[in-house]
Specification:
Elements (H helix, E strand, L loop, with lengths): L18 E10 L5 H9 L6 E2 L6 E2 L17 H6 L2 H16 L12 E6 L4 H7 L8 H6 L4 H10 L5 E4 L5 H15 L4 E8 L4 H10 L23 E9 H6 L6 E10 L11 H15 L6 E5 L8 H14 L8 E4 L2 H4 L6 H15 L1 E2 L14 H4 L1 E2 L5 E2 L9 E7 L4 E9 L16 E7 L2 H16 L6 H10 L6 E7 L2 H13 L6 E5 L22 H8 L1 H14 L5
Parallel strand pairs: 4-5, 4-6, 9-10, 9-14, 10-12
Antiparallel strand pairs: 1-7, 1-8, 2-3, 6-7, 8-15, 11-13, 14-15, 16-17, 17-18
Helix pairs in contact: 1-13, 3-6, 7-13, 10-11, 15-17, 18-19
Length: about 575
């Protein structure tokens, strides 16, 4: 059953339980945004590369040392003392809020919660190599993992919960679960959930290697007979969450719906780090029950799927017992793992899997799980009711049924998390925005001239990727859904070609009649400004043209007409 704007479908759960993902940002090997991440997944790209210095393979992100401290109001000295994972959290959060069309400054004093999953502190290892002399007052906050969440709350002036979660590899998915629970309780009105992971110190890789967790050939052979460990990955992701009923009432764009979730622990097993099948079954069954769905309703599960010879068969058996059986005409359950594309992001792996599942739901397709030739001998796929796509395939068709996906993440200490997602509810298509006559302004701002040029370049890149928004839509979004900083520019044009030409001039730092640049003046009066332009600021019929093409103007004139009607003929 589909639904329309302002209502919640029973297939999404109750209005109190269903949580909407209204914003997303990610940075992983080979992809700096959700759109690029989908292109990477859909093309079956392996973004894992070999490090020239160490010879080891890993999913690396670029520009880890590039951080615009001034943009976030941080001094260069403090920025140098900060764990780059704190910097990455700030950057991704800002991107996710903008992607959600939320002006970050508008969240000050709101009950917005921040929940971050992180387990590694390689930067602390690097700093402490310098001995006591390396310690300073700034290293206390700079190296403390709690600050990954707290810096976001401080920067934006947020009054909701702010906490960092560490339950090993399931940390970021548990952070999402906790954020959803906070929203459901009314503790938070908006929530930012995240996971970040950077590989900075050789010691952390050596420790995992000597534990026997890493793949000698640098690949995650998920559910494959060649499973021999995982390859490390770095980066992170942030999602912005809101109760579905609130998101629909606010007219937000919804990427997907988090219908339900569950968390438990193995509570025993063969060893501290060995997974337990019964516990994994329990957590999946609990999430399914809370979602009020049947096994055949789940069309895809994004696996924990590290490619280890012990963990994979246990995960497959648990999935088969709960979701693979009794599927009726639904066919086998498709499963896959983003770790085969970008590596295992450890504490941030769960939320990367969530972003992948959300993209699969919105695109209606399932990407290939790479490096999969034949099933592990202890994973009888047919008997378990499972299948591993090895090419991009359409989501299995279920007419008149919403798509649902599961996401699993398991910590090596036994903390298991499983979330169930649903595709976004259908809404009434928005009426196309009328094309305003004449010139359209595109308003951009940044904290520096370099940032201003970069904003223009990013907008050009976005348009070149095939985005089909009208100039009026883009101009409106830039005016009302972006923060206004000191350095400013307005690009003017009558159509898309002229606007792109102006943006290119701004991006290149060239002069152009279509670009007006300026900056705010500190201490200047920000009160009302009256402009007396004299003759020449209007033309015959201009109001009549606006009546025909701008509904807001027409409604205002009609309101004036009604107010003056008793006094004029």
């Amino acid at each position: 059953m589909r639904t329309h704007e302002g209502t919640v479908s029973p297939e999404h759960g109750t209005g109190d339980e269903a949580v909407a993902v209204v914003g997303m940002a990610c940075r992983v090997a080979g992809a700096a945004s959700p759109r690029q991440f989908w292109d990477l997944l859909a093309s079956g790209t392996n973004a894992v590369t070999r490090d020239e210095r160490t010879g080891r393979r890993a999913g690396r992100v670029a520009d880890k040392d590039a951080f615009d401290a001034a943009f976030f109001g941080i001094s260069p000295r403090e920025a140098a003392a900060m764990d780059p994972q704190q910097r990455l959290m700030l950057e991704l959060t800002w991107e996710a809020l903008e992607e959600a069309r939320i002006v970050p400054a508008a969240l000050a004093t709101t009950r917005t919660g921040v929940f971050a999953g992180i387990i590694n502190d390689d930067y602390a290892t690097l700093v402490r190599r310098g001995g006591p002399a390396a310690a300073s007052g700034l290293t206390t906050t700079g190296l403390h993992r709690a600050m990954v969440a707290n810096r976001v709350s401080y920067l934006l002036g947020l009054r909701g919960p702010s906490l960092t979660v560490d339950c090993a590899q399931s940390s970021s998915l548990v952070a999402v679960h906790l954020a959803c629970e906070s929203l459901r309780r009314g503790e938070s009105t908006l929530a930012v959930a995240a996971g970040v992971n950077l590989i900075l110190a050789e010691e952390s890789t050596l420790a995992m290697e000597r534990m026997g967790a890493l793949s000698p050939d640098g690949r995650c052979h998920t559910f494959d007979a060649r499973a021999n460990g995982y390859v490390r990955g770095e980066g992170g992701a942030v999602v912005v969450l809101k109760r579905l009923a609130d998101a629909l009432a606010d007219g937000d764009r919804v990427h997907c719906v988090i219908r339900a979730g569950a968390v438990n622990n193995d509570g025993g097993g063969a060893s501290l780090t060995a997974p337990e099948q019964a516990a994994q079954e329990d957590v999946i069954r609990a999430a399914l029950r809370r979602a009020d769905l049947a096994p055949e309703d789940i069309g895809y599960v994004e696996l924990h799927g590290t490619g280890t010879p012990v963990g994979d068969p246990i995960e497959a058996a648990a999935l088969g017992a709960v979701l693979g059986a009794d599927r009726g005409s639904a066919g086998p359950l498709a499963v896959g793992s983003a770790k085969t594309n970008v590596g295992h992001l450890e504490g941030a792996a769960g939320i990367v899997g969530l972003v992948k599942a959300a993209l699969c739901l919105s695109h209606g397709s399932l990407p290939a799980t790479l490096h999969h030739r034949s099933a592990h001998p202890d994973i009888p796929l047919d008997r378990l009711g499972l299948t591993v796509p090895t090419a991009l395939v359409p989501w299995p068709a279920r007419p008149d049924r919403l798509r649902h996906a599961g996401v699993s993440s398991f910590g090596m200490g036994g903390t298991n998390c499983h979330l169930i997602l649903s595709e976004a509810p259908a809404t009434e298509p928005a009426a196309p925005a009328p094309e305003a006559p004449g010139t359209v302004p595109l308003m951009l701002s940044a904290r520096s001239e370099e940032g201003l040029r970069a904003q223009a370049a990013r907008l050009l890149e976005w348009w070149a990727a095939g985005e089909s928004w009208s100039p009026v839509d883009v101009g409106h979004a830039l005016a009302v859904t972006r923060s206004a900083f000191e350095r400013r520019a307005v690009v003017l044009g009558d159509d898309r070609v002229e606007l792109e030409s102006g943006l290119r001039a701004l991006a290149d730092g060239d002069d152009s009649a279509a670009v007006v640049r300026g900056r705010t003046v500190a201490g200047a009066d920000t009160g009302v400004v009256f402009v007396f332009p004299g003759q020449g600021a209007q033309w015959a019929g201009m109001g009549r043209e606006l009546l025909d093409c701008v509904p807001v103007f027409r409604r205002s004139v009609e309101a004036c007409e009604a107010a003056l009607a008793p006094f004029v003929d």
